[in-house]
Design a protein that fits this description.
Elements (H helix, E strand, L loop, with lengths): L1 H24 L2 H4 L2 E4 L6 E8 L3 E10 L5 E12 L3 E16 L4 E5 L3 E3 L3 E9 L4 H6 L2 E6 L3 H40 L1
Antiparallel strand pairs: 1-9, 2-8, 3-6, 3-7, 3-9, 4-5, 4-8, 5-6
Helix pairs in contact: 1-4
Length: 189
């Protein structure tokens, strides 16, 4: 009976860890921690953010309008934080990555880069000159995590299912252990 109790405890603990991991890693603050308007020529904007997991990230520029293969820009992105120190990226163009057709928005991505540790960071973006498409239509800049969607969606789904299943098995096992314990007490009396 003691082994059954330990097994149920382990199932509940591991199931809770699976659920917590899926929720913790998939928080919006971790996947897209920075959203800023694109500054005008000669201006810069900055925002602090916190990463809960290190990994690959990229800069995504979103503009309204028709898609084109690339979008010319003249931006300097600076990211300061633990582990990576200070990273400076000069963006001369970004490539088309997708669209939100209902809103008429086009998404353009930079090349991915690594942010190597969790912690507090500061994201700064400076525009050295006005890009015609961005100046005329406006733009937003997002720092977003770079990942392979299929693998991450499968991993998160499996982690959630495993978490719920292990917690259910642990709860049922705990209940069964209590019932067996009561039976043995009655038989002993």
């Amino acid at each position: 009976m003691t082994a059954l109790r330990w097994l149920t405890f382990a199932c509940i603990l591991i199931g809770g860890a699976c659920l917590a991991g899926a929720v913790y890693v998939w928080t919006p603050e971790n996947w897209a921690p920075v959203h800023l308007p694109l500054p005008g020529a000669g201006l810069a904007v900055a925002e602090p953010f916190r990463l809960s997991t290190p990994g690959g990230y990229l800069v995504q520029v979103t503009v309204p309008g028709e898609p084109s293969p690339t979008l010319d820009c003249d931006l300097t992105v600076t990211i300061e934080g633990p582990g990576s120190g200070r990273q400076v990226k000069d963006l001369r163009s970004v490539r088309h990555a997708g669209s939100y057709s209902f809103g008429g928005l086009q998404h353009y991505n930079s090349e991915p880069f690594q942010l190597g540790s969790r912690g507090e960071y500061v994201f700064r973006i400076a525009s050295r000159s006005d890009a015609p498409a961005m100046r005329a239509r406006g733009a937003t800049v997002t720092l977003t995590q770079y990942y392979h969607p299929t693998e991450w969606v499968l991993a998160a789904g499996l982690s959630r299912v495993a978490g719920f299943a292990l917690i259910a098995v642990g709860a049922i096992g705990s209940l069964w252990s209590a019932i067996l314990g009561m039976r043995r007490e009655r038989q002993a009396a």
